[in-house]
Design goal:
The complex is a heterodimer of chains A (333) and B (288). With 333 residues, chain A is an all-alpha fold. Chain A contains 16 helices and 2 strands. Chain B has one domain: ABC transporter involved in vitamin B12 uptake, BtuC (Orthogonal Bundle), CATH 1.10.3470. Chain B has a two-stranded antiparallel ribbon with strand order 1-2. At the A-B interface, helix 5, helix 11 and helix 14 of A face helix 4, helix 8 and helix 10 of B.
């Protein structure tokens, strides 16, 4: 098991090195921008994965944290706070708001939880639209970090770095006691609580972590596009995209959100000329197909296939009574 | 005081349409336990059906809404058979994803077909007002209110008195025992889903004269519909009707006294408060 983990880590390092490649090879700015968005949404998918994948809580309100990151950076920077500190403060602020939101929404389950998260995101959008400090519907300008001809290359690399950070957090989660608790909650919350997992506490912790990372991504996004309006940066579409990316690739898997981001943004980029404004159509079709035929997602589906083949090849090892938590742990790897 | 009562009355007029939307969702979500995140998108489809009839055939929306309801009934049944029935026993998680996907497909197909432009039906009823005493009411809204009331009462009577309605309530009470009593759960569930969607379509047709029409017009109504069902108490058709009226009045009072732009925020605040404080709904009994 340890060796396997080591191998996985090396694969990861290789992946990160590989994902730096476009920055060296690609010169076309538009293409670089597409790569930037793929890396950023991979980071978002991975951040969402902590709550939606490992803990199994279908949040459609993550845009709240994304927006707080972007707006926090814009507002703080306009009061001449240096950008890195502004990003940090904004992300911590988003984490604080997440603690508040979590207190409300984690009392609910199933559709009520999802609806409550949507409501939180929408309340933030309405607030940003109607307050002066956020520039109302007109929006705010966000300071850039990089300038010059290397602009998109540097932004792309920052997004890769963020995605790598999110990946490491996911990696740690998948292999830690914290992550096992989350997966136990996903499989059966009542049982988890009965065997002594403080479910409310662990769900909240996963949300805090996820919110911090999501807010960082929001700040990066805002600063790359330099201009934010509520209908653009606080729209529920972003929450939905985060969820679809993770689900398509495989929620609760390490590589799932990355695969999902590449496929989803790749597909929407490819069909852009056909569908123009209706680029979400492809998302809709993909979700319906995934739910019908591949409920574990692409990576999850492949893992399941490999597992069943391994089982067929080897006679079943004497496993001491498989609890749902243990099978969840296996699924997570 | 006149001001306050006027706001309440306007709220009731809107609330009757909310009641229609909410009762539709109460059938689907409250009774049949299908989490339908595409409810508002079906409402949007209803609006487009009614709009196309008005635009191409010059049919008044106040007749067109019937066609919208019938069309949406068939469409809803088709969607149930193709997409909902295969996953109806899966988790809420999957149902939410599926219906979110359906919503995206509906909205973006509308956008692809009709463009993102705003459309409006100019019928003169919308600009006419009815006065009585110190109060002024919009004639079109008053007509919608009347039609909506007929459908609300009709649906309630149907659920309480008809054989299908009894079967429906039996499933709501105990899903495991109902089939043992000879009730075809799949058939009833498909029918309820279609009927709920048809009510969204009817509400869409009735809303058309009062609103601008664009592809994502229904998005707010999905959340509103869930707010209404939660307000009224899960699984209660009458509760949903009352919930719709309460929401209409709450919105109207908010936009009168706080500001128009906050009317939507009150939905969410009401929703979060309701779920945290009294999840069984204002009128709901706690269900086992």
């Amino acid at each position: 098991m340890k060796e396997l983990r080591g191998a996985k880590l090396w694969i990861t390092i290789g992946l990160v090195a590989l994902s730096c490649l476009p920055a060296l090879v690609v010169e076309n700015n538009y293409l670089l921008q597409v790569c930037f968005r793929i890396a950023l949404f991979a980071a978002l998918g991975l951040a969402w994965n902590l709550v939606g994948g490992y803990a199994g809580q279908l949040s459609l309100g993550h845009v709240a944290f994304f927006g707080l990151g972007a707006y926090g950076l814009a507002i703080l920077a306009s009061h001449s706070v240096p950008v890195p500190i502004a990003v940090l403060i904004a992300s911590l602020l988003a984490t604080l708001v997440a603690a508040l939101i979590g207190k409300i929404v984690f009392r609910l389950r199933g559709p009520y939880f999802t609806l409550a998260t949507i409501a939180c995101g929408e309340v933030l959008r309405l607030t940003a639209t109607n307050l002066n400090i956020t520039g109302g519907a007109i929006g705010l300008t966000v300071p850039t970090v990089f300038t010059g001809p290397m602009f998109w290359k540097l932004y792309y690399l920052s997004a890769v770095a963020l995605a790598a950070g999110c990946f490491l957090v996911n990696f740690w989660t998948a292999n830690s006691r914290f992550g096992y608790y989350l997966m136990a909650i996903r499989e059966d919350e009542d049982t988890a609580s009965a065997v002594g997992v403080d479910t409310a506490n662990y769900k909240l912790r996963s949300l805090l972590l996820s919110a911090f990372l999501t807010a960082m991504a929001g700040a990066l996004y805002g600063s790359a596009f330099q201009y934010i309006v509520p209908d653009n940066i606080l729209t529920i579409d972003i929450s939905v995209q985060m969820a679809i990316i993770a689900m398509l690739g495989g929620a609760g898997t390490l590589l799932g959100p990355i695969v999902g981001a590449i496929l989803l943004l790749g597909a929407s980029e490819t069909f852009k000329t056909q569908f123009q404004e209706s680029h979400l159509l492809i998302y809709g079709i993909l979700i319906v197909l995934v739910v019908l035929f591949l409920p574990e997602g692409i990576v999850g589906g492949i893992e399941q296939l490999l597992r069943s083949r391994r089982k067929a090849a080897k006679p079943p090892a004497p496993t001491p009574n498989q609890s749902p938590a243990i099978s969840a742990v296996e699924k997570g790897n | 005081m006149v001001h306050f009562l006027q706001a309440c009355m306007n709220g009731l007029l809107t609330g009757a349409l909310y009641a229609l939307i909410g009762m539709g969702l109460a059938l689907i979500f409250g009774v049949m336990r299908i989490v339908n995140f595409a409810h508002g998108s079906f409402l949007m489809v209803g609006m487009y059906v009614s709009y196309l009839l008005f635009e191409r055939l010059k049919i008044n929306p106040y007749y067109g809404f019937i066609a919208a309801g019938i069309f949406l009934f068939g469409f809803g049944y088709l969607v149930y058979k193709l997409l909902i029935q295969p996953i109806r026993d899966r988790s809420d998680f999957m149902q939410i994803l599926m219906t979110t996907g359906i919503a995206l497909i509906l909205v973006d197909t509308a956008q692809l077909t009709f463009g993102a432009d705003y459309h409006q039906t100019n019928i003169d009823l919308v600009n006419r007002a009815v006065h009585f005493g110190p109060f002024t009411l919009n004639a079109a809204s008053l007509l919608s209110f009347g039609i909506a009331t007929v459908f609300i009462v009709g649906l309630r009577e149907f659920v309480v008195r008809s054989r299908t309605g009894q079967a429906l309530r039996a499933i709501a009470q105990n899903r495991d025992v109902a089939p043992l009593m000879g009730i075809n759960v799949t058939r009833i569930q498909g029918f309820s889903f279609a009927l709920g969607i048809a009510f969204a379509g009817i509400a869409g047709g009735l809303l058309l004269p009062a609103l601008y029409l664009f592809p994502s017009v229904g998005e707010d109504y999905t959340l509103k519909a869930f707010v209404i069902v939660v307000l009224g108490g899960m699984g209660s058709i009458e509760g949903a009707a009352m919930g719709g009226l309460v929401l209409g009045v709450a919105e109207s009072l908010t936009s009168t006294y706080i500001g128009n732009q906050w009317a939507l925020a009150i939905d969410f605040v009401l929703f979060l408060l309701m779920l945290s404080l009294k999840p069984s709904g204002i009128f709901g009994r706690q269900r086992a």
